[in-house]
């Protein structure tokens, strides 16, 4: 069984980024992304309607963290320190040493290799200090940017579930990609 401890919070740095803990000060920038139907088109979660929805999301992130049941990093540029995106592990199955990865980046910062830098770093954290055996990603078959990112990082497709996810009155398909730790 995985024994996780996210205290103290593992701040991670890359060439251009600092991946740090979320604070409530990040809520306005998070809200900008979570309320935008285009940015959220492949993330089948309810859109944030008010700033309070984003604050609630940060509360959920912090509660998961406190219980050692999930970890989400706020992605910031080294010279700016403001939220530009998020990346993390949730739906952690401790008994199976397995977690689901999720990520979101402000479109103004997309296409510059930022998520590539962030994902490499948290994959190393997941298989290193966290001792995961499998990282899973659930992705819409239409989300080409996310699929490209996963394939570039050696995730392989394990499943194509047809109409398995009911959201906003529609049964959506899901691709399941996984990456196993090197044995
Ligand atoms: C998916 C996402 C995080 C990618 O972030 P990004 O920083 O733009 O990605 P990168 O610049 O690091 O690119 C990584 C690879 O994906 C490719 N890629 C990025 N966006 C792409 C797009 N729109 N179409 C095709 N390929 C794309 C890049 O070309 C790169 O591969 P390469 O180096 O071989 O050229 C970003 O598009 C996003 O936040 N999307 C909205 C939220 C979302 O859908 N999250 C995932 C839910 S499963």
From TrEMBL:
UniProt EC number: 2.3.1.267
Keyword list, A-Z: Acyltransferase, Transferase
Catalytic class of the enzyme: transferase
CDD domains, A to Z: NAT_SF
Domain of life of the source: Bacteria
GO molecular function per UniProt: protein-N-terminal-alanine acetyltransferase activity
Signal peptide positions (record): none
Coiled coil: none
Domain N-acetyltransferase: 17-182
InterPro entries: Acyl_CoA_acyltransferase, GNAT_dom, N-acetyltransferase
Entry protein name: Ribosomal-protein-alanine N-acetyltransferase
